[in-house]
Write a structure and sequence with these properties.
Strand order of the largest sheet of chain A: 44-45-46-43-37-47
Chains: A alpha+beta (about 950), B alpha/beta (about 425), C mainly beta (about 90)
Mean pLDDT of chain B: 97
Mean pLDDT of chain A: 96
CATH topology of the largest domain in chain B: FAD/NAD(P)-binding domain
CATH architecture of the largest domain in chain B: 3-Layer(bba) Sandwich
Number of helices of chain B: 11
Distance between the termini of chain A: 95 Å
Strand content of chain B: 25-35%
Oligomer: heterotrimer
Number of strands of chain A: 53
Order of helices and strands of chain B: HEHEEHHEHEHEEHEEEEHEEEEHEEEHH
Number of helices of chain A: 22
Helix content of chain A: 10-25%
Radius of gyration of chain B: 21 Å
Strand content of chain A: 25-35%
Number of strands of chain B: 18
Distance between the termini of chain B: 43 Å
CATH superfamily of the largest domain in chain B: FAD/NAD(P)-binding domain
Largest sheet of chain B: 8 strands, mixed
Low-confidence stretches of chain B: none
């Protein structure tokens, strides 16, 4: 019911919205909850376990009951708090967690079975027969559990992430936060002021009242106007600070577009990373319910929420309201209601000595012991001394006290301190370095106290930041002492809910304690109290009190569970913004990328790079046809492939050779200028890290190449070795991977192709040599190396000439019966030739395993040499690299067995790492690791791949299948 | 008290007033035959199997906080036997078999659910590596199925097959892989151990280890000295500190692993999905929350909480793989303290002190190992010999080079 | 989490790569016994409290850093260059 003249909603701007298929009308400034209440809707949801009818309990993000689905044009959002979602024209919502209609939820039958569904019941049953758990019990439980539902469709919404850096982050824009922001901003500090609500003011808006003699809202508007006028202030409304992390980093979620109709260019949410050396937590306090029998009916609400709906939204939550509270603040709710013309039927105050000033019936020393009303509250039963009586009411406003909103201060595992005075936990100073609580969040409950505390907190922050605070006057405001008495639960016949969202009652807590789950963490996990969407914001302290009572310990001794981020739930899409599709990882493209795509090459991921798989020709039906052709082309004519993905590290200085001797197993200091050598690099634990060639370009100048996969790893490794162990050597190096485009040109006609292009012919450049060259007026580098077994060269030019050179090379190659080849052919060529890749050197492989132990120089120390001597890394028990030859298809990932032995782990002899069909040799070839493999050449071994249904006899042989003498490479 | 559906029914009728404590709350005795330091999953299962398999019931489990308060209570609940190196294969295979009978063995529903685990792969090389793994699983007697892209699509149609950064080439399905209710595992073992006479002593921190002439004599605790001829250290992330009391320096570095759970949702993910390229894995709990995690935060830590870089990375991985979860909201995040070993595999072994045993190095795979770890640790403590399926989990294997490095990332602790 | 790189100033954790304890700086001599290498590569104090460990400013200046920090609170008290330490030179 709307009250004329109350609230800060914009009554000139109507918003039509739908809930469960019915049309309603609200105003701009309404939340879904306030608009539903204004329309007299009280039943909005069903509880998690018993599917009890539930209404709106609170007016904030802590709402445990009123969770709905928001239906968009293309997708829907589950578990949206009706108390946070703002209404707009066209908003479509519906209730969730029901089977059938909200009013006639078939799963409400669970409530009848509640006696059999007490805490932890599922741990004690559903065990027989075993197969029934997955087939019957669990599916039924899963269907019944859960709240809202995802659509199963990709979330196509826009989301953003942002960074903000400030001197001071102020969390909450109530009296303490506004005052803190004002003081800090006037002193020139960079301030970020974040508040969960769309409007600033916090309790000043919810409670009304006056500040400095003027309406609170006027004071708020004045402060806001000033803050907005200052360039050093950023105000983030609709922004919840969700987590406190190390070194002044905070996470925050801004609801950018959720209060408007969806637009493609409008982000739904933005996840902020705010870095600030100081922060002030001015997040206020949360009111806690009272666990009295049948306290969960729609219409039973928090007193502060009832007040907020009245003052902020101009909505009366009921026609005939009763108050059940042990706080003075709930009396203010009653006074505001009466002043607005809403009937208050009675105030029930358990405190026998509380004051009576209201002009409504007040029952002191009384308690509510029962309620009625199936889909909404109709009446309550009050017990006062020996007598009990019934009161008709459609809204009960309750208040059991206030809990400071201290969650962020606990995010670093420091538990809050129990205050007997406040009957609440309060923050421990220093719990999060740089974060200081002020106002109600720190247990200072009066408005004036909050204003003063906010000012003081800002002054302290300014002082720490080396700034001087100016003089800012604190306006006069309400300054009553915090009148309250802790009341946790009321004994009675019915169930008394503590955790509304997870349907946990006081009985569940007592049962858990009795069943050994008496520590607070056990109780929580056994009953699920505090694990629902509100994370116990409404129930934790009450549950602790009941547990403390059940175990005979005090609350401080009982302790509390830990609050962890996020303060309010954050969508995966917001924290994962930017990750969709290709955004998840950088994409690295070769200079030849477009040229390869132009030729129809499928590009495949190689780490972050994209490389061509093969270059299909007309008439080729499969990749294999193309691959076979490309292999033959390289073997018979010439092929060109882009090898720029290989890491390239330019190393210079007098000690460059000495350094390479230290990081490679073999020696490079003796390498003549103009020569290239294959190098093997170990990790310090003795396993092979990488391999590649390094060229000596000058007396003090080397160029190292790494594999594509290990390029970054090797760079990091070199930096470590140099900075940790030889920082004084004359040595500098830098990655030049992106600076050079490099192409392999391989095959009998490789030389002819290059000679047609180079300004000077190759001449007598020997195998494993390098030289400067010029191509088309551009300085180039030429290496005579081969990964195919053919006479081969690699030519490198500055990256900006890469594409031009690649296209030119291809055009010329094609006139010679050659052309481009891709990764598939490259792989076949290298297997034929017995070269290894990271499929073989997969991190568990030693130089011994690949037959390269002789490359570990005996004359010098090198990284990994000592650890490689460990006994487990040598000998016949090790699996050693071998070649496999077969007449039929074989597969990588297959395991090897001796013929005649059972195919079981105990008999496993090794495994296959790479295979190919060799068009050159007309056979299936493989590389494998076989126990004592080098001694077993010529043996027949059984290759078994269960997954691909392959069982094949193979001949074990040397891994070099093609041209073992290397005559072709050296031609 | 034996749990059953009938018992739940009968108790329901009488107002659930007759439930008995799940375990006693005994004061520590002056002496036990064996002491287990650490009341987590592994410690509790060790105590249970000492009693059940070896008849050693005069046992105390000493827990500095509350039972099950370590990693068994903060993990992503995945149970699998998909290792490929000899040593690991037989151990996790044994563990999975124990899981498959755990409810009835413990008379406690740990909700072990074999929903099937899919490891996605994104290149031919990864496919072959998973094939090696899958074949090893079958050679061990476990199950594995290699799915191609269409096979994955049939099983997990909601993945982003069109736009994800690392296209899905297929997956290795481990049908017997799945999840279990983590707390229930700790409580089930606790209750079953208690029923066999084991003393579970909470709020009892070990402050010293008493050694005489190279033999264990007992421990000092915050609740007094306790003597025992056999002591097992089963404290996961705290292994370094406890072992130091016995003069040991372990090959362990403790790291944070964060995990996340969303608000409850109706069933949407039936399987356990592992996305290696994004270091992301996810399943949905019976309560409806999406439970997921990623990689370590990577820096050594005992804080049991992490930082945003890994949080965001995990969420981004989720968004590239399955953007349908975008509107699920993360309700809670937490961090466990992982005992990272230099090859990613555990240690179940004797120590240089006679009668002192060590069970640690579970990296971030300890949950699924709870049954077999306890089984083998109990065997070791009772017989003095390593159990057949755990004989490679030697403490000295780093010195000798007999490594069990499934990831192939080497001796750097945080890379496993 | 932020580290103050001696060269680049305060930077977010995501710019850095983590290696492990500073033990990695104390490489044994080539002829040292196996136990020395075992200690070097594997065994760690793994303190719950103050530690010194190695970070690499990979997305910054490529300097290896020794970070003095607390493994329980994550408080960082010093960041020094590996290359600048005593013993970095041969």
């Amino acid at each position: 019911m709307r009250i004329d003249g109350k609230g800060i909603i914009d009554r000139t701007r109507q918003a039509r919205f739908r809930f469960d298929g019915r049309d309603y009308q609200g105003f701009k400034g309404d939340t879904l909850a306030s608009a539903l209440l204004a329309n007299g809707v009280r039943l909005v949801g069903r509880s998690f376990k018993y599917h009890r009818p539930r209404g709106i309990l609170t007016a904030g993000s802590e709402e445990p009951n009123a969770l709905v689905e928001v239906i968009g044009k293309t997708n829907r959002t589950p578990n949206v708090r009706a108390t946070v979602q703002e209404v707009f024209d066209g908003l479509e919502t519906r209730s969730q967690n029901r089977m059938g209609s909200l009013k006639h939820d078939l799963l409400a039958v669970n409530d009848l079975f509640a006696p059999f569904l007490s805490a932890g019941f599922y741990y004690k049953t559903f065990m027989w027969p075993r197969a029934f758990w997955e087939k019957l019990y669990e599916p039924a439980i899963r269907r019944a559990a859960g709240l809202g539902s995802l659509s199963g469709r990709h979330d196509e919404g826009a989301y953003e992430k942002a960074w903000a850096h400030a001197d001071l982050l102020v969390i909450g824009a109530g009296p303490a936060g506004l005052m803190a922001a004002l003081v800090a901003a006037r002193a020139g500090a960079d301030v970020v002021l974040a508040d969960e609500n769309p409007v600033l003011g916090g309790r000043l808006i919810a409670e009304g009242g006056t500040l400095g003699g003027e309406p609170a809202a006027v004071w708020v508007a004045g402060v806001e106007a000033e803050l907005r006028s200052l360039p050093n202030v950023r105000i983030l409304t609709r922004t919840t600070v969700t987590g406190a992390y190390d070194d002044g980093t905070y996470g925050a979620l801004e609801r950018v577009g959720l209060h408007k109709p969806a637009r493609p260019d409008l982000p739904r949410e933005c996840f902020w990373r705010i870095v600030a050396p100081r922060a002030i937590l001015a997040a206020g306090a949360l009111e806690r319910p009272i666990a009295f029998p049948m306290n969960d009916r729609p219409g039973i609400m928090m007193a502060g929420a009832v007040r907020s709906y009245l003052n902020r939204f101009g909505v009366a939550a009921g026609k005939r309201v009763t108050i059940f509270a042990s706080t003075d603040s709930a009396r203010a709710t009653a006074r505001d209601l009466v002043a607005a013309g809403v009937q208050v039927a009675a105030i029930i105050d358990p405190r026998p000595d509380a004051s009576v000033v209201e002009e409504v019936p007040v029952h002191l020393g009384a308690e509510v012991i029962d309620t009625r009303g199936r889909h909404g509250l109709r009446s309550i039963t009050v017990r006062k001394g020996a007598e009990s009586f019934e009161i008709e009411t459609d809204c009960l406003a309750m208040s059991g006290g206030w809990n400071p909103t201290l969650h962020l201060t606990s995010h670093m595992n420091v538990r809050p301190r129990w205050s007997e005075d406040l009957a609440a936990f309060v923050p421990v100073e220093g719990a999060v370095p740089g974060l200081f609580a002020a106002g109600a969040a720190n247990g200072t409950m009066s408005t004036h106290g909050a204003l003063t505390a906010g000012k003081a907190a800002a002054e302290a922050a300014l002082s720490a930041l080396g700034r001087v605070a100016g003089t800012v006057a604190v306006p006069a405001a309400e300054d009553a002492p915090y009148g309250h008495r802790a009341i946790w639960s009321v004994e009675g016949r019915g169930r008394a809910w503590l955790d509304f969202a997870n349907d946990v009652t006081t009985k569940d807590i007592r049962q858990a304690a009795k069943e050994s789950y008496a520590s607070v963490e056990h109780m929580k996990r056994y009953t699920t109290q505090g694990m629902a969407p509100d994370q116990g914001k409404n129930s934790n302290v009450g549950a602790l009190a009941v547990l403390a009572d059940a175990t005979g310990r005090g609350i401080p001794e009982t302790g509390t569970t830990t609050f962890r981020p996020p303060y309010t739930p954050v969508s995966i899409a917001a924290m994962g913004a930017g990750g969709r599709g290709a955004g998840f990882a950088p994409q690295r493209f070769l200079t030849s990328d477009q040229a390869s795509r132009d030729r129809g090459a499928p590009m495949i991921e190689t780490g972050l790079w994209y490389r061509p798989g093969y270059f299909p020709k007309r008439g080729e039906a499969t990749w294999k046809e193309a691959c076979d052709r490309e292999v033959a082309m390289v073997r018979q004519a010439v092929g060109v492939t882009d090898v720029s993905t290989l890491g390239k590290i330019d190393i210079q200085g007098k000690d460059a050779g000495r350094f390479l001797d230290f990081v490679y197993t073999n020696t490079f200091s003796t390498l003549p200028v103009g020569r290239v050598r294959y190098g093997l690099m170990l990790r310090e634990d003795g396993m092979v890290l990488d391999d590649g060639t390094s060229a000596r370009l000058g007396e003090t100048h080397y160029l190292m190449t790494t594999t594509t996969a290990a390029a970054g790893l090797v760079m990091r490794h070199l930096d470590f070795v140099q900075q940790a162990f030889c920082a004084d050597w004359d040595l500098r190096f830098i990655s030049v991977t992106e600076s050079w485009a490099q192409f392999a040109v391989a095959g009998p006609k490789a030389r002819a192709l290059l000679d047609s292009l180079l300004e000077m012919p190759i001449g007598d450049l020997p195998f494993m040599a390098c030289a400067a060259a010029r191509v088309g007026g551009v300085e180039a580098r030429l290496f005579r190396i081969s990964f195919s077994g053919e006479e081969g060269f690699e030519i490198a030019v500055p990256t900006r000439y890469g594409e031009a050179l690649f296209r030119d090379l291809l055009a010329r190659a094609e006139t010679m019966g050659g052309g481009p080849y891709g990764m598939e052919a490259l792989n076949v060529l290298r297997i034929e030739k017995g070269f290894i890749t990271h499929a073989e050197i997969h991190g568990r492989i030693t130089a011994f395993d690949i037959g390269m132990e002789k490359m570990v120089s005996a004359k010098k120390d090198c990284i990994g040499k000592a650890a490689a001597q460990r006994p487990g890394l040598w000998g016949p028990e090790r699996e050693q690299l071998v070649g496999l030859k077969a007449t039929g298809p074989i597969s990588a990932g297959a395991h090897l067995f001796r013929p005649g032995f059972a195919v079981e782990r105990e008999n496993d002899q090794g495994y296959v790492t790479s295979v190919c069909w060799s068009p050159t040799l007309g056979a299936w070839l493989g590389q494998a690791f076989l126990k004592d493999g080098r001694a077993r050449h010529g043996e027949t071994i059984r290759l078994v791949d269960h997954l691909r249904d392959i069982d094949m006899a193979c001949e074990v042989c040397d891994p070099v299948f093609f041209d073992p003498e290397g005559g072709r490479m050296r031609a | 008290m034996r749990y059953s559906g009938w018992k739940v029914f009968a108790e329901g009728l009488r107002g659930n007033k007759g439930w008995k404590p799940a375990w006693r709350d005994p004061a520590p005795k002056a002496e036990y035959d064996a002491i287990i330091i650490g009341g987590g999953g592994h410690g509790l299962s060790t105590a249970y199997y000492l009693a059940k398999n070896h008849g050693i019931t005069n046992v105390a489990v000493l827990e500095k906080g509350w039972l099950g308060g370590g990693n068994v209570g903060r993990n992503t609940t995945i149970v699998r036997a998909n290792y490929f190196l000899p040593g690991n294969s037989e151990f996790y295979s044994h563990s999975l078999k124990l899981w498959e009978g755990l409810e009835r063995d413990l008379n406690y529903n740990v909700m072990h659910s074999q929903r099937g685990l899919v490891n996605l792969f994104h290149s031919d090389g990864q496919r072959d590596a998973f094939a090696r793994r899958g074949n090893a699983m079958i050679n061990q007697g476990d199950d594995a199925i290699l799915l191609d892209r269409e096979g994955v699509r049939e099983l997990l149609p909601y993945l982003d097959f069109d736009n994800t950064r690392f296209p899905i080439h297929g997956g290795l399905l481990h049908p017997r892989g799945g999840t279990a209710r983590h707390d229930a595992v700790a409580w089930g073992y606790a209750r079953a151990a208690d029923r066999r006479g084991v003393d579970l002593i909470q709020n009892c921190e070990v402050t010293g280890i008493d050694i005489e002439n190279g033999r264990i004599r007992g421990v000092q605790t915050t609740r007094g000295a306790i003597r025992a001829g056999k002591v097992g250290i089963v404290v996961a992330g705290r292994s370094g500190q406890v072992a130091a009391m016995a003069g040991m320096r372990l090959p362990i570095e403790s790291h944070i692993l964060q995990a996340f759970v969303t608000e409850g949702l109706k069933p949407v993910i039936d399987h356990v999905i592992s996305f290696g390229m994004g270091h992301f894995y996810i399943s949905q709990s019976d309560k409806g929350g999406l439970v997921f995690g990623g990689d370590l935060d990577f820096y050594a830590s005992y804080a049991a909480r992490g930082n945003l870089p890994m949080v965001e990375h995990v969420m981004e991985a989720g968004m590239t793989l399955m953007p349908m979860i975008g509107r699920a909201r993360v309700l809670r995040s937490w961090g466990g303290i992982m005992d990272m070993s230099p090859d990613g595999s555990p240690i179940i072994d004797k120590t240089h002190v006679e009668g002192l045993f060590l069970d640690c190095g579970w990296n971030y795979g300890g949950f699924k190992a709870v049954p077999a770890s306890g089984w083998c640790m109990a065997h070791l403590m009772a017989t003095g010999e390593s159990h057949e399926v755990a004989k490679r989990f030697r403490l000295d294997r780093f010195a000798t080079g007999h490594l069990l490095d499934e990831e192939g990332t080497g001796s750097q602790h945080n890379l496993h | 989490m932020r580290l103050t790189c001696p060269l680049c100033g305060p930077r977010d954790r995501r710019e850095f790569y983590y290696y492990g304890a500073e033990d990695y700086l104390n490489r044994p001599d080539a002829g040292a016994p196996g136990s020395a290498w075992d200690d070097y590569l594997h065994n760690r104090d793994n303190p719950a409290g103050m530690t010194r460990d190695l970070w690499y400013h990979e997305q910054g200046c490529a300097q290896w850093l020794i970070v003095t920090r607390n493994t329980v609170t994550h408080a960082v008290t010093a960041v020094d260059l590996v290359a600048g330490r005593q013993g970095a030179a041969t």
